[in-house]
Amino acid sequence: MSKLYLLIRNSLAVLLMLGCLTSFAQQRVSGKITASDDGSPIPGVNIQEKGTSNGTASDANGNYSISVSANATLVFSFVGYAAQEIVVGGNSAINVVLQSDVTALSEIVVIGYGSVAVKDATGAVTAVTTKDFNGGLISSAEQLIQGKVAGVQMVSTSGQPGAGVQFRIRGTNSIRSNNNPLFVVDGVPLAGGVQPGAANVGFGTNQDTNPLNFINPSDIESMSILKDASATAIYGSRGANGVVLITTKSGKGARKGSLDFASSVSIASVRKRYDLLNPTEFLAAVRLFDGDAEAQDFGSRTDWQDYIYRTSVSNTQNISYSKGIKDGFLRASLGYDNQVGVIENSFMKRLTGRLNGSKSFLNDKLNLELSSTYSNVKREDPAISGSAGFQGDLQGAAYSANPTWSTDPDFNTGGQRSPANMLAYYQSTGTTNRFLNNLTTTYKLNNDLSVKGTYGLDWSKGEAVTLASGKSVNAGNGVQGFGQGQINENRNINHLVELYLNYNKQVGNIKIDAVGGYSFQSFKNEWNWVVGRGFTDPNSFSSMESELRSNFDAADAAASAIYKDYNNWGVTNDLRNTGTGNPTSGGFVSGINLGEKSLEQSFFARPAGVTLAGVAANFYDQTDFLQSYFARGNFTISDKYLFTATVRVDGSSKFGENNRYGVFPSAAVAWKIHEEGFVPQSVSNLKLRLNYGVVGNQDGLAYGEFIRRERYGDAGVGDNREITLPGTSATGNVNPDLKWEQTTTYGAGVDFGFFNDKLTGTFDVYVKNTTDLLLRILPAAPSPVVGLQFENLDAIVENKGWELGLSYSAIEKSDASLVFSGNVSQNKNLLKDFGGALDAGTIYGQGLSGAFAQQLSGGHPLFSYYLREFEGFDSNGQPIGDNQRFIGKTALPTWNMGFSINASYRSFDLAMYMTGQFGHYVYNNTQNAFFTAGSINNARNVTRDVILSGESGFAEAAVSTRFLQSGNFMRMQNLQVGYNVKLNDMKYLKKLRFYVTGQNVFVITKYNGLDPEVSSSPAGFDLLNGLPTAGIDYAAYPRPRIFTIGLAANF
Amino acid sequence: MSMLENFKYKIWIPSLLVGGFITACSLEIEETDSIFTKGESSVFNGVENVAGSLNTIYNNISGQAGDQANLYALTEVSTDELVVPTRGTDWGDNGVWRTVHAHTWGPTHPFLLTVWNDKNNGVLRATEVIDPLSSASALQIAEAKFARAYNMWIIMDFFGVAPFRDPKDGPEVIPTVMTRSEAYNMIVQDLTDAIANLPASNPTAANKTRPVKAAARFLLAKVKINAAVYNGTYGANDLQDVINLVDAIEAEGYSLESDYFGVFRGPSFTNTDVIWNVAAGVGNRMWNGLHYNQSHTGNGGGGWNGFTTLAEFYDKFEGPPTSNSIGSGQEERRGYTHTLATTNADNQGFGYGFQVGQMYGYRDGAAVALTDRVGNPLVFTKELPGLVGNNERTGIRLLKYSPANGAFTEGVVMARFADAYLMRAEAKLRLGNNAGALSDVNALRSMRSNTPPLASINEATMLDERARELYTEGWRRNDMIRFGAFKNAWQFKTAGDGHTDLFPIPASALLSNPNLIQNPGY
To answer: Which of B1, B27, B89 should one mutate to test binding to chain A, selecting the residue with the greatest count of A CBs within 10 A?
Structure first.
């Protein structure tokens, strides 16, 4: 363990003692707090003695009582109301009337283990609260703030309900997968818990799920984006990609009891389709390419895009009840979403329940806070895969399907996949249950010092059931006639225990706000999958699923009767490679004897309940730990000069013994220039910020990568329903030096406001250098490691950029308002000092096995295109250009932009928001795979432009700049008009609002695919060299255009 | 409460709470689903389960043999026997197939890296089992030595060197590199040891997936017949050793079988020709060449329309030059294609051997003449226009394993007595015993119907005979190099200077191991 950590441990103790040594003369003040609008008492108002941690809250009747020092100033604050400061000055009774203030909500920003007033923040932190959230059909939390924050790029990987997201804060730091930030929900850092991906039962895998699916977006109060290292250092080894803190609605602000109901209905449709040949044109084109048009005319007239796409109707219902109780608050909510995808057989149904509450005891010395949510998310996904081979996934099949085929699922298409067959005979469903709970206890030791203890529990169980019926044709080998099914199951249990101290003290003109503590988090991850082939009734999904489940139970019972722990088991009539004298049919189990530290296999007879021809299951169970010590001090001098110092020491079980603990320090200073006398009155806010910090990233690193471990290789069921007895193999690698990546950031920023904050803004510049890059690379063969091994590379990823956010309040009247706001950011990415060259960016499609479009190489940005320069077709119609090289273009956007208008006039309000990305290129893999002359030459449908391109029907469609296009776009993402019904003193109904929202209304772009903002990615194990891809569009699930009408009522 | 009491109370409660946690938790992960390496060394203390490790070693050999790309493609597509022409967009695959056939491969070719890593990994896993720390039995060590010899032989044969790692070395230790002769000696020693401890052979055993004495003898004969390639010249006893080894195999009961295509019908190979097979499926081998519309009740998607043979290779066989229809008088080993009349529910239109001319299928209870995807009659042509610009119908497809036996059957033959038999004949020829060689070869030909005896024999006719008997079994590259023919010109490949007899060492291997030196010519 490092010495620094011991130092911090000691410092904490000192801090603790300091806090206890203070004592002052006391006097008691009491009074009643009422609201200005209706004069009713407000419970739960926070009453704080300024400059100390001494405070209390008003009771259910709005009354309070507090002991304060003689010359104290009391600060009365409450969410939704403007704070007031009152000098006690010897008064023993002070009654207060609070003015409601909608802008007050944004004045406080959560920063991790605390919160800070926006005006006192020293780091680059942006908070987005309810009033600024995007409206319409929101399938996961990050969509609420898409485009709202400068320097943040969010790309949902597709338009599928519940699809994953690529969330990049200030560029891409890491060269391996997952550059998403750390998500922290009500203080609990998330890990795992997502739905397992659809298995490959012959149609490719689909791993595309969103980590925030489980949260009901309407439960969210605010989201804070911590962008620079001075802000994220409090999360140490997980802070390198930024941190997103999600705070849910607590019930604060509801004094009497408030019932909210919201309901909306959305209609979604595909915004753009490919301009495919109609049946007549198709047959003419077949003839043009010397095909036999008569033989290709099967008599039907089918628009296959019509066949798989649909106009879908989704709905969302939310009900919540909030109430101030004695010494606390309570909020309960229930939400239901039924989001129906624009492709057949896709939906996401989400049921969430949440209970948040807080209550104080012992004269406000002790406070308990509970935040608890349960969600049940069900999904169905069609056969859409980022790694579909030459036959394409459902969309690829629809693009290339002969438009004269019948839509009978059993229609014989020859060797091509029929979309009708795929829709009818493939089924992928999933269910994820998740329980996230956080209980925080705060105890005030004295006026300045309080201790907080947190226990967080994150439990989840996710399951994906993927079935290919025996009637599916052109699926995987051995599926036809027998069926193939797989159930993937993930179970996660994460525990979080935290204990920390808050210290607030005003000493002269110095204000100290310090926090220090300890955190321990454990991550238990159990997963298993069972695969079966040769079903009793391979043509019924329900029968297949129940057969797979009952077979699993029967075989698992037989296996567990032999060993307590096992890596896998299987039962088949055709058991291979069992060695001389061993059975060649029946069951086997690969046991792991933890006591004896040995691996052994046993055989058993086919259990009576096992009816499948072949069934096998694999089991994993791994637990990691993270232990941390952290401290942060904020020092404010004369309310002008702000200093923040943060350090976190993280110890992670994912690292080798030589680098188990890491230290992540940061520091920031800020100068509130507008507080100086020389600044003119028109400058209402001017703050300069400087920051530096070192943060880490350990994501992507799995359990036990640094030691040699042995277990049985995975068992599967082969094409002929056989099982090959698995052998043992080593996993992990002896590498005691393995450690996290480290990102060092330097940044400077200025926050400004002019004319009484009519014009406000923030501008930041930064340089980030990521070193010790974690990457799976090929070791020198032969190596003790199979395949790739994790190493810390001696190279640097540099991100340099700036970001600007501006807001201008053009009209501020009692019955009218108009606010323009926008943000723009530039980021330049570069990989430096990397000696190797690794191919990346796999391209899929017919004749494209092994093709790739990107390369990772020093001196180039990440995701740089590495392509043949296409120079047209020669006289034989063959493409010119056959030398793959860097072409100076990247998939990473240089510019990100967002622009909003918010306006209100009397009962109407309007919100409009546009987003754009510029400077990047998109590789149209869809066109490469399906829309070339070679396709129509094989009687596969194509887009209209293919016919006259001059390309020979026998030309190879090699990866080239022919399929690369600028990805610049500007999207009208959100347009909402609302009407607030005038309620003339209705007794029960307090608010009623109707609204209409359009999402993805139009896109301005030159990109010729369906949508430039897309990133299809194959599953992790399909990635070339283990490197992620970006900017590749391969028949991605289209992003729909959505219109929503909704109402919100408050009782 | 006095100040002092207050102080104590306020200090001790939180100190206890905080202190309790700070010192507590260990960050050691626990063994839950895997066993951590145990014992003194942090690197290697023997494999946990020798039998399991051997299963993995042999499963890997099987999987690699079942793959159409990588090992198989490098041994066959690189020769005059197979080509994977680009058909419009199909099989472009970034040029991987064309460069293998045209011998224009470079050090970044993905197949080379895959074979390099697969086979080197196989060597290390076997070495781990052999290491005394693993306490393997004599039989297990013999099986591991056979596997190590087989894997190392491929590395040495392909790349001219063989890296070696002691399992007790940490991952920071760069593997040493053995020269070709050093590797040759180690392989010979491993096989000699394996022969001593492997079980005696049963030529009619149902399960031949693990090596027996005959398999090790076969592999040793294979290595020795190539000794001149590896060491510059044959050693004094090398060729006689080949003869003795094959004699020993024959003495155990292996013999030539008369039903040529029946030899390859798995999954159990109880015939006396097959010495060693792996369990891998033969789906890839069959469907990689067949057309999309050549579907089967067990594979509605049909084939993948890739691999074909070349006209020059087809012409090496006896029979009518343009048709290979069933009963046209062609030699047995050329196989046959079905006619409308012979296509039935049983064979579904799939013949054996060289598939040329009109193809037939069985649909809805009736035999039908097949068409390609745009509707032209599915007639496989003998000639190809080149490596690119092909339509769906060019090229003769090869079926050593046939869907007539099922859409996805298993069992890839790795070692046959017929090969050993021809190696012995070749050794006789190389020792100057032309008469003995001719007699042996004609004895083999007499087992194959419509195959007249040869009048004389020399190196060229011996190479051709091996081609006819052993096509698509993974030996063609090895044979052509041994007979000095690999640098010659053939269809879509120009004559070379011989440097392609060795593949280049993969670029990433050179980067990660400075002990390696790139082969000449690359």
So the answer is: B89
